[in-house]
Amino acid sequence: MSMTSEEVPLPGQKPGLQPRPVVWLITLIGVGLSLFQLYTAGVEPLGLFYQRSIHLALIMMMAFLIFPVGGIRRRRGVIGWIVDIAFFGGAVLSGFYLCYNLDAIFYRAGFWNQTDIIVGVIATITLLEASRRAVGLGMTVIGCIAIVYVLAGPRGALPWFSDLLPGVLGHRGYGIDRLIGQLYLGQEGIYGLPLGVAATYVFIFVLFGAFLEVTGAGHFFIDLAYAATGRQRGGPAKASVIASAAMGSISGSAIANVVTTGAFTIPLMKRLGYRPAQAAGVEAAASTGGQIMPPLMGAGAFLIAEYTNVPYLEIVKISILPAILYFTTVYLFVHVIAVKEGMRGLPASELPSLAEVMKRGWHFLVPLAVLVYLLVRAMSPTTVGFYAILSIVAVAVLRALITLLFAEDPERPRRFDAGMLAGACRLGLYRLVQALEVGARNAVAVSVACAVAGIIVGAVGLTGLGLKFSSLMVAFSGGNIVLALLLVLAASLVLGMGLPVTASYIVLIVLVGPALTNEFGIPLLIAHLVVFWYSQDSNVTPPIALAGFAGAAIAGCRPMDAGIQAWKFAKGLYLIPLFMVFNPEIIVGGPVHVIAWNAMIALVALGAFAATLEGYLFTRLGVVPRLLLAFSMVAVFYPSFLVELAGFVTICAVLAINRLQSRAGMDDGAQGQVQRTPESPGP
Fold it and tell me: For residue 422, which of 257, 386, 523, 579 sits 20 to 30 Å off, Cα-Cα?
């Protein structure tokens, strides 16, 4: 397959900045990585270190090719080529040295030779540089701080740093040999659990999403959402919510979701009457929700399953109700704004037909059905992803054959011949290579972030920082669980300014997880879900609202305005985790009537929340009703049935009165029109 740099510019680059051999090499490594992952997922699984070291080596090789040392918008000079080739060699050395010498390294465990330590140092530096390029400077800085913290101490390699550490954070300190043994040569560092999840479950599902993307599933889901909601008030915005729920679990990235679905939904929302910042905010909030939407949920579900030893299928099942609550909140915001502004839906002539959409793309539902069916059969997520990808390829080939044989132009009938078949095969091969390469590209940032998160996890485990951080958290909160959750929320927001969602979740759960479960009595699974949900916040909260900023670029508004709107629409990220904590039955289970009651009061409370912020539901809400709704929402979240019931009844009463006021206003308006009609001049 011939692809020039002009035909396939790299993400964020101007065309032509990558020489053709580099583009070919990126494609070759990307396809090789994806085929390696498919082989180990469905044919022959490899051991822990073999799988993870080969995966990370190939990922870092791609990172140094895709992201030059001087930035993706600048050409490499001679010095740039020397630096990039050196780091490329470091990526090859660090991964394959471990594979080749694995038995010998295990044999001398704890008594490393000088070569082991030198290669480990090279591997760590290479990974941090790959992180700087592919993930951002924030992740690299935190990784460096973790390393310095390990070395600081009276008996460490940097004893003079110990004077700068507060008493509670002090520790004995460790040397370079012990640090590298932990980070590179052990199972609790770079090649620990975070990278293990990225190198197995996450990659195979990122590849699954890439195959769906390349075969056209994204357009199918967008058209399906428009066909279902386009005629309603604020139809394009509601379509954005539904399409983003579907696309978010496929793309694995809130920002990628914004630029994919937002290219269609944001202009239509603006045309319908939404302000540019509102349109960008709706898309950003909905796209962020895609990361918590089963069945894929990005990398989070797999990490939660590994950390808690809860089967992946269980994580998916218990996440359905919270995800529905979140998207209901965004949907209600959209509806309230549409009613408030008197918007109407799009005319049927501008919308796709549901029957036509299903006729064109029904086959895209088959891989998702296969995915769900195999998960229910309790198969390994990696194996499930492997067979789901095979099902995509099968239905795509079948669909192409049907189109080739039967979809002819009545005015110019085509003959089926060898040339037509050869052209179809070339196109199919091109799409296959494209999907394999896109899957590998999309996994670079996640895998590198997980590997650096392994450095942080290793440092925390070696120094006991997790227990110390938990003590600080208990001290600052005074034992108050609400204050503790607010501290977690603040920490997630700060971390999210420099870390991707997955890395933010890993760092936070390592630091605050023990305190949430041991000191505050929050069940382990709920503690992980709370931290995971809070980690999504950086996508939609200023000053670093990355998904909101991506939407602003499409909407043509100021990034901070879009970020503020996204923050407002995505407030379910704050409220629903609180509801999990104080009403754990919706996660850990309980009597059916208790779960049904909790689901009902949560929906009503979230609807009241949207109405309170907008000051409108059926008609305009006054100050007193909004205050009543605000206090009633607090009561609904309070862990007492009588208080919950009082809050629920108050909300229902306020909303019912608002509905009656709306109907009365409509009747008055109709009467006024009847009275004025005779006075109006004739045509």
Answer: 386
